[in-house]
Amino acid sequence: MSEFTLTTPSQEPGYQTAMEVVFQWNYDPELEELRNLYVKAAEAQWISERDLRWDQQIDLVKFSTTPLGTGVPIDQTSYWKSLPQDTRSELTRRTAAFRLSQFLHGEQGALMVAAQLVNAVPHTDAKFYAATQTMDEARHVEVFARYIEKLDEIRPIAPSLKGILDQTLQTSDWMKKLVGMQIVVEGLALYAFREMRNMTEEPLLKELLTYVARDESRHHAYGVQYIERCVPCLSPSARAELEDFALECARSLIDRNAQGLFTTLLQIWAEVGVDPAAMFQSLHDERDEILRDAPPKKRLGPVQGFVLPTLKRCGLFSERVATHFHGFFRENFGDRVAGANVQDFMQHLPDLPADTARWVMGEIQ
Ligand SMILES: [Fe+2]
Ligand SMILES: [Fe+2]
Q1: Using CA atoms, how far apart are residues 349 and 343, in angstroms rounded to an integer?
Q2: Is residue 108 a contact partner of residue 8, using CB atoms and an 8 Å limit?
């Protein structure tokens, strides 16, 4: 063990955050649904050391079923299929370590925001719930770090994710913290955990994501159930400000240029000897064929498929803010994804799943 010191070389310089701390003298249940969620969370606590089988070796053959998360079907190109199995496995392993590292750093952000919420939210039930979430997030940080170290190495946080975490931690407005973390960041995380959990056949990763995703579906429920009670109490200008905050957070994740994610993925490809130009050429040449074989119902991405429906459910998706979202989607993905106009865009937004906990386990669509 290294020597104990007050500052460590791996820590970042601290920054100031603005947060109002609120005492609440009414201890009786007031928001029944949040009190129930708190009890559910207490009952669902699990222990990494006891409940996950860490002595299992990571099965690298099964691991190659883990989705790459590039958003484009590169694994269906003839170039990909022509790569040696070892190269494909190595690419999957390193890409997954990068994605899991983003989950890990996001979990650390969630841990700190949840702890802030204990102080800042004004209702007792909401403080209780945030306390259980804080415990959950600590466990998530623990298990992701442990898994990545078993798999490969922890990679640095993507600047776009760090930006959202900073903004959410720094704001003085607890409702913005809820929207930034519980709705935007956790909405995206839930979507990504669901995809990875349901597709990977690597047993330890699947087990780990099952536990984590169950917790996350409660965290998302907390955000939705609390915010939808709060929004009707806001003035039109306060509501618009909250919508704009959600827009800012989601926008930095939609904006491909700002992400830096793609650059990192290309670096990983280069590391293992994959030629990006050849891969894209193959994708370009075989596009029609790949699209023809794709399932007829196009799956929406995490923002359109989950985050925006959540905002809509919470009363934070007015036509005004939808117009901005539509503009960004058009710029980044074109008309085919965004729809021709904002009415079209709003109309094609799916509803939230009836039961998020079952949806995340792939039991319902
Ligand atoms: Fe988490
Ligand atoms: Fe969470």
Answers
A1: 10
A2: no
Q: What percent of the chain has pLDDT over 90?
A: 65
Which pLDDT band, with edges at 50, 70 and 90, does 259 fall under? low
Q: Are 177 and 121 in contact (CB under 8 A)?
A: no
Question: What is the number of the ligand closest to the CA of 129?
Answer: 2
pLDDT band at 302; cut points 50, 70, 90: confident
Cα-trace Rg, the chain: 21
- HSE-CB at 105 with a 13 A cutoff on CA atoms is 20
Tell me how far the alpha carbon of residue 24 lies from the centroid of ligand 2, in angstroms.
24
User: What is the distance in A from the centroid of ligand 1 to the CA of 211?
Assistant: 10
Residue 32, pLDDT > 90, answer: yes
Pairwise CA distance, residues 132 & 130, whole Å:
5
Give dist(CA 344, CA 338) in Å, integer.
8
Integer angstrom CA distances of residue 52 from 47, 49, 57, 140, 341: 8, 6, 12, 12, 48
How many CB atoms sit inside 10 A of residue 214's CB?
Answer: 16
Ligand 1 centroid–CA 183 distance in Å is 12
Q: pTM (2 decimals)?
A: 0.93
pLDDT at residue number 253: 75
Give 138 Cα–ligand 2 centroid separation in angstroms: 10
Rounded to the nearest angstrom, the distance between the alpha carbon of 323 and the centre of ligand 2 is 29
Whether the predicted pLDDT of 257 surpasses 80:
no
Please choose, from the candidates 143, 144, 129, the residue with its C-alpha nearest in 3D space to the C-alpha of residue 220: 129
Which residues in 305-343 are b (16+ Cβ under 10 Å) and which e? ebbbbbbbebbbbeeebbebbbebbbeeeeeeebbeebe
> How far does residue 215's CA lie from ligand 2's centre (Å)?
7
Share of the chain above pLDDT 70, in %: 96
